[in-house]
Fold this protein.
Amino acid sequence: MRLLGNKNLLIIGGSSFVGRHLLAELNSNEYLSTYCSNEIRKGIYFNASLMGIKDIIKENDPFTEAILLLGDTDPDSCISNPQKSRHLNVDSIKVIIDDLLDIGIKPIFASTEFVFDGTKGDYIESDKPNPILLYGQQKLEIENYIIMNSSNYSILRFAKIYGMDENDGTLFTNWIKVIRISKTIKCANDQIFSPICVDDVVSTIFSIVNLNLKGLYHVGGPSAFSRIQLLRLLLENSGIDDKHVLKIESCGINDFVLPEKRPLDVSFNIDRLLNDTRLNFLHPSDACKILGSQINRN
């Protein structure tokens, strides 16, 4: 999918995982992208703690939407230094949003499944958030700030995003590394979510921009799984027998040593997104077939 018409994107946080994949699908004349710690090709340095949007663009620049991908997205990192993460994830983002709205640029904000407490699952957009993670609380505060200050916005709550590149450090590829060096994997059987391929996240962003969709959307994969179901799906498509070749130690997600208790079922209902965009997403079983062939080749 490509951008349609006279669209020019400001991508704030282009060095992020989603940002890098988004930039790979864009022509250089379709966007301006920022980075802070990790330099990117043709990127503009932007330190949200010290700078404002008006330091890098002018009011007459032809940007129509800004994709807000900047922030600390690691829940453990956020709770380890609440003051630092709040400054980046809340205080700085509010200033960015104020600048965007003042210039007349539509914000498209990347939020998270962790705005929910995980007691229900199959969450729809109208369900009341109740985050138990600090990271989720920070994201929800920005959601509410945007809604309170503008009617021209999109909020995209991302489910767990995975990639297909062997060294990208995401869900399946991390397991592949463990499979190659270990005979045992400890895996949670009670955490349920709606994993989505990063390429489908990029397609969603294009659709939101091209169709000028507004409001709140849940962005997740077509089905919900527990972690252990996904691991077994990967093993099955790799021809690995988890009873003899690799041992899975089943446990609860909160049996791991974590600084905060994790929500259990944050799975999404994505009917609204699919109805409005007519997109089709990669099913994890098909992703595992592709990744399984990578394991077999190596």
User: Anything to note?
Assistant: The chain has a mean pLDDT of 92. The longest helix spans residues 82-103. The chain is about 35% helix and 15% strand.
